[in-house]
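This section describes the prediction task in plain terms. A model, or a person checking by hand, is given the sequence of a single protein chain and must write out its three-dimensional structure as a string of tokens. No templates, partner chains or ligands are provided. The sample shown here is typical of the held-out split.
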Amino acid sequence: MSFRDLVAQDNVRVFGNTDEFADLRTIWYDGEKYEEVQTVMTKLKEKDRTIPVKDHAQGFYLVTAIVHFPVEQLDGHVPENGSRITISDDDGFGREYYVAQSSCDLGMIRLELEEYDE
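The expected answer:
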């Protein structure tokens, strides 16, 4: 068994452990629904959005988050930069995000997400 195989195995058993780190969430991506995905999601910050000159909307914030989950739980699909993804929140409702940065290494997908919120 190679080092990569061992790390991929640990990602699911340790990092994806729902008793310690991960939450089971539903993910909708590219017209597909993936249920009970072991995700670790961290909301990093909330900041005032940059308001374009002709846009006078007030009270919206840019929320950024990072989410990790095993690549095999999306059947090997890695969301692309610039795409939309919907991830269920703690209440089970789907929240739509913009994928600002996407990567996959050692069997784990890492997404930097952005969303506008009131």
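For orientation: The chain has one domain: 3-117.
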